[in-house]
Amino acid sequence: MSLYQLTAHTLHKKLKEREITAVELTESVYNRIDAVEPHVKGYLELTKELALEQAAAADAGFQNGDDMPSLAGIPIAIKDVICTKGVRTTCGSKILRNFVPPYDATVMTKLHQQGIVMLGKTNMDEFAMGSSTENSAYQITHNPWNLETIPGGSSGGSAAVVSADMAICSLGSDTGGSIRQPAALCGVVGMKPTYGRVSRYGLVAFASSLDQIGPFTKDVTDCALLLNAICGHDPMDSTAVDEPVPDFTQSLINDVKGLKVGVPKEYFTEGLMQEVADKVNAAIAVLEEHGAIINKDISLKHTEYAIATYYIIAPAEASANLARYDGVRYGYRTEKPEDLLNMYKKTRSEGFGPEVKRRIMLGTFALSAGYQDAYYRKAQKVRTLIRKDFDAAFEKVDVIATPTSPTSAFKIGERTEDPLQMYLSDVMTTPASHAGLPGISIPCGLTTDGLPIGLQLLAKPFAEEMLLRVAYSFEQNTEHHKQKPNL
């Protein structure tokens, strides 16, 4: 196998034993990018010069016999919504096309302390608003499994580059499913940690009560390694929880005997593709064969309201967060504005794309006088009910198993004229976001058309170890994670 095809933990062993160098590894990945990126279009910016400098620094540490961290010298891609000092961060938007952050996000500081190699910034739906990566102001990313289909969103670039072996692993962000859904559609592992487990400092805000950074990896072991690196309390983020961070690799145990797995009937209803249902049920059967206790009596009865609730709360928070883009402080400014008010209006009209404008208007309406109680406050009450459903379920089970996405990847352009149909792509993932729960998507099979299907596992807050244990056990007893797209 080529170096770019290997996992981070396999490569760490080779680097530590000096079988390879980080520079060789980095060049291998960039050669793969040169060959495949014109078809996939997963990157917005490559940082090859910086990456080779970082790789050389990692090599020096290995050659000196230093005790090098597990991610030292590993090439990683970063979603373009995460601030990177001295490297352009656009959020997939014209309005930030020339923004170069003067500081690193906390997750980047942590990764640099690990000695990672930063490959570049990945494409995304503008300001993380979308489920297909078709809303980027710059390009559409293609799914490596079928270049005519979408990779999911909003972290479609981060999922696609890992799937296509153009990165060993990557970081994305998840607001209503933007890590888990593209992970499922691209056939990789994607995890949304518990809200507050990872600092949001330096993550450009979409919906502040929902946004969370998490990893895309080729297997569950790499997922645990990245979680070890990015989790932890941060005084720079008031929502970061001061909770002890375990060594997540210790939870990689091939044993689910006696664990209770809940299967809520609300996730297996109309709109779920039959092939997806069949593969997910087969995956649950694998867990049962290896000793898990399956409980199909749990109910998450407010699930049907999750999408409607999400598309009130998230746009409301977005309308407040995106008010800062006014053409004055940073970012794009319209040419020759007549006066201040027109500068605001034209800057936003020219700088924001259609989906961002749509959500700003939805959110501003939901927060406006006379409608705030009817919409926003009612949505917050429903959000509480959704969380209580999960609380009750986790009194009976250890994890919940569901499909990650109701369908496999759909054709590019298929849903762009129907926003409501597009929003339903997140129907399986938004409930956990409302409740702040950790969730992981792992590959569990392919459709007859050869497109990946994902199994979603959910656990109670700060129970990432339980998720990793179940996901690792499933992975060790199946071959799905070894399947690769034919590019």
Write a short abstract of this structure.
Helices cover 38% and strands 12% of the residues.
Explained architecture:
By secondary structure, this protein is of the alpha/beta class. It is 38% helix and 12% strand. It has 15 helices and eleven strands. The chain has helices spanning 8-16, 22-40, 48-63, 106-114, 156-163, 180-186, 220-230, 274-289, 306-321, 340-351, 354-367, 372-393, 419-423, 430-435, 464-476; strands spanning 43-46, 75-79, 117-122, 169-174, 189-192, 212-217, 260-262, 293-295, 399-403, 439-446, 452-458. The protein has an eleven-stranded mixed β-sheet with strand order 1-3-2-4-6-5-10-11-9-7-8, sandwiched between helices. α8 (274-289) links the parallel β7 (260-262) and β8 (293-295). α7 (220-230) packs antiparallel against α15 (464-476) and α9 (306-321) packs across α12. The two termini are 15 Å apart.
Secondary structure elements and pairings:
Elements lengths: L7 H9 L5 H19 L2 E4 L1 H16 L11 E5 L26 H9 L2 E6 L33 H8 L5 E6 L5 H7 L2 E4 L19 E6 L2 H11 L29 E3 L11 H16 L3 E3 L10 H16 L18 H12 L2 H14 L4 H22 L5 E5 L15 H5 L6 H6 L3 E8 L5 E7 L5 H13 L11
Helix pairs in contact: 2-3, 7-15, 9-11, 9-12
